[in-house]
Design goal:
About 40% of the residues lie in helices and about 25% in strands. It is α+β, with helices and mostly antiparallel strands and about 290 residues long. Strands 2, 4, 6, 8, 9 and 12 form a six-stranded mixed beta sheet that branches. A four-stranded antiparallel beta sheet has the order 1-3-7-5, covered by helices on one side. It starts with 5 loop residues before the first strand and ends with a helix. This is Vesicle-associated protein 2-2. Keywords: Coiled coil, Membrane, Transmembrane, Transmembrane helix. InterPro entries: Ig-like_fold (IPR013783), MSP_dom (IPR000535), PapD-like_sf (IPR008962), VAP (IPR016763).
């Protein structure tokens, strides 16, 4: 296997430059390997270009095209020169991989896998005046003697739809994640999961509020029960004290009555004996 996993045509992105007009360039990737190869496209000027698609999987012995669209410019660059560059990364992926299987970690060099990189520079050319344009391997020949072939905007407009949206990128070479269908699907799935999670969190928060309300009501009832228990205990203590006092009073009264009874016994006895004596004296003959 050679050093290049995919063959890239063309190696220069030639844009027919006209003020306030978009221009596009088609790039073809050819997989010469017997393996599945994934690719990713990055750029140093993310605000000026959009790439569709920016990631994909090329089957063995197959080709894949991506379109680079330069957004409409309002000023001409100095000397019609741009230092913009594109980076095409490619790496072998497991057999049967699809676009949905592509993740950023696949192109990480820290994973230890081989990452092939190819840089493409940008060239601006004047718009062609001849209507005869023929596409050949992703480039356009303006004639046999034309050494500066360029894509005619009208031809590109008919052959390939031009995106009217400009996407933001990050860092020097950044990914156009929003344009890839797989990433769009992932984002939609993520939004759906976030919505579901927010709904569950809202329900859990409502349940927590209901639980707190129930806990507050239970605490209020427990506080009232504690107060009632305290009142009942106090009443019970008072009742016990009254019973004790009543018992003590009864004992005291019994003792007083007994003492009085003991103190009056001789008097009654004497009177009883006196009465008995009188009766006996009356009854007995003299």
């Amino acid at each position: 296997m050679g050093s290049e996993l995919v063959e890239i045509q063309p190696r220069e992105l030639r844009f027919a430059f006209e003020l306030k007009k978009q221009s596009s360039c088609l790039v073809r990737l050819s997989n010469k390997q017997d393996e599945y190869v994934a690719f990713k496209v990055k750029t140093t000027s993310p605000k000026r270009y959009c790439v569709r698609p920016n990631t994909g999987v090329i089957q063995p012995r197959s080709t894949c095209d991506f379109t680079v669209t330069m957004q409409a410019q309002h000023t001409s660059p100095p000397d019609m020169q741009l230092k913009d560059k594109f980076l095409v990364q490619s790496t072998i992926v497991p057999f049967g991989s699809t676009d949905e299987d592509i993740t950023p970690s696949i192109f990480s060099k820290e994973s230890g896998r081989f990452i092939d990189e190819c840089k493409l520079r940008v060239v601006l050319v004047s718009p062609p005046h001849s209507p005869i344009l023929q596409p050949f391997n992703g480039t356009v020949k303006h004639g046999e003697d034309d050494e500066s072939p360029a894509l005619k905007p009208d031809f590109i407009h008919k052959a390939f739809p031009i995106m009217k949206e400009s996407l933001s990128f990050k860092d020097a070479f950044v990914d156009d994640k929003n344009l890839a269908p797989s990433h769009a699907k992932e984002i939609e799935d993520l939004k759906s999961k976030i919505t579901t999670l927010e709904s569950k969190l809202s329900e859990e928060a409502k349940d927590m509020e209901d639980m707190r309300s129930n806990i507050d009501a239970l605490q209020s009832k427990l506080s009232e029960a504690d107060k009632m228990i305290a009142i009942l205990r106090e009443e019970n203590t008072t009742r016990i004290r009254l019973v004790d006092r009543s018992q003590q009073e009864i004992v005291r009264l019994r003792r007083t009555a007994a003492a009085r009874a003991q103190a009056g016994f001789p008097v009654f006895f004497v009177i009883f004996i006196w009465i008995v004596g009188i009766v006996l004296g009356y009854l007995l003959p003299s």
